[in-house]
Amino acid sequence: MPALIIIDMQRGISEPSAGRRNNPGAERNIAALLNAWRHAAAVVVHVRHMSRTPGSPFWPGQAGVEFQDALAPLAGEHVVEKNVPDALINTGLERWLQVRSIRQLVIVGVSTNNSVEATARTAGNLGFQAVVVSDATFAFDKTDYAGTKRTAQEVHDMALSNLDGEYAAIATMAEVLGDLEQALG
Fold this sequence. Notes:
Layout: E1 3-7, H1 26-39, E2 44-49, E3 78-82, H2 93-99, E4 104-110, H3 112-125, E5 129-138, E6 142-143, E7 149-150, H4 152-163, E8 169-171, H5 173-184
Parallel strand pairs: 1-2, 1-4, 2-3, 4-5, 5-8
Antiparallel strand pairs: 6-7
Helix pairs in contact: 1-5, 3-4
């Protein structure tokens, strides 16, 4: 059974200063996956970004660092704190998963081109079978290196393309829920 890895679904990501985003239904889809994992009594890992940059909405002690209420961990669900984009770097998460013989990961959260992509790349490099859920992740508008403004959807799509087949599989929430139902038999 794969572990559900929920990345950076904190209050600060909803602040207007974060910018324009895609996938407005992502939180609803993440909540549906979370509820399905809980119903199956499967492993859930909540990842929280703790910024080292003063003024960041994820700076410790600010409201932005708290989990969104609808996606907050329950007692017994593992919480990982990170201060770089990658949830598998300097957090102990890799070892925690290995000790439990968990080799499959379903990754959701924000942002597709940053923490989700970084975590999925490392997961693939470490030999985990990772799935990134396309409609349970989202990105923000971003200007590319050449100075061209890219929409959040373009940024999201490119990040998924970077991962697909190389580091992770890409699936929709419906596909992942179908796989979960089949696994539960």
